[in-house]
TrEMBL record:
Gene3D superfamilies found in the cross-reference section: 3.40.630.30
Name of this protein: Protein N-acetyltransferase, RimJ/RimL family
Domain N-acetyltransferase: start-end pairs: 11-169
Keywords, in A-Z order: Transferase
GO MF annotations in UniProt: acyltransferase activity, transferring groups other than amino-acyl groups
InterPro entries in the record: Acyl_CoA_acyltransferase, GNAT_dom
Length: 190
């Protein structure tokens, strides 16, 4: 079961449902899905994934990404690291359902997360990490407004080739809220 916590046009963010552990286990073990993620080299079984979901569903700000029309789980996102004192947060996401790749869902999810991070969590800087071989993700992040902040050269070796780990970020003053401001505007009109 999913709950519409943050609603976009084509998808919404819901608290993570631990019952989805089989689907997540399938995705995190699919190298095409997990290749660009930190845990790509790990073997993650059903029990391990279930315990990870139990932990992240009860701590921090982690969400299931759900197709708004089909109520179908397509991935997850969250803030794996938050520094409230300095108002900095790391955002991460993955679309596990390949049917949704390259269709703008990643952009919409990032916009929802930026709205939440800047307007609800009161963050000033939101950053992410991506490997230089993940061109599709880099294009998505740039379209949303992320800029390259730095890189660790040759930090990831895949199939005998070295790739950079790129840090990208966006500041609250560089982002125009769409979703949260619409909610507030509707409340003011009543």
């Amino acid at each position: 079961m999913y709950f519409k916590k943050i609603i976009g046009q084509r998808c919404y963010l819901s608290p993570i449902n631990v019952e989805d552990c089989e689907k997540y286990t399938e995705w995190v073990n699919d190298m095409e899905v997990a290749g660009g993620l930190i845990f790509a080299s790990q073997l993650i079984g059903l029990e391990t994934e279930k315990s990870i979901l139990e932990r992240i569903s009860t701590s921090g700000y982690n969400f299931a990404i759900v197709d708004i029309e089909k109520d179908e789980l397509i991935g997850n996102c969250g803030f794996p690291e938050l520094d409230h004192l300095n108002r900095v947060g790391e955002v991460g996401l993955f679309i596990g359902n390949k049917d949704y790749w390259g269709k703008g869902y990643g952009q919409e999810v990032l916009k929802l997360m930026l709205d939440f991070g800047f307007n609800i969590l009161n963050l000033h800087n939101i950053f992410l990490r991506v490997y230089s071989f993940n061109n599709q993700a880099i294009k998505c992040y740039k379209k949303v407004g992320f800029k390259e902040a730095g890189r660790i050269r040759e930090a990831k070796f895949v199939a005998g080739k070295a790739y950079d780990e790129i840090f990208m970020d966006i500041l609250d003053i560089e982002y125009t809220s769409i979703y949260i401001n619409n909610i507030i505007d509707k409340k003011l009109q009543k």
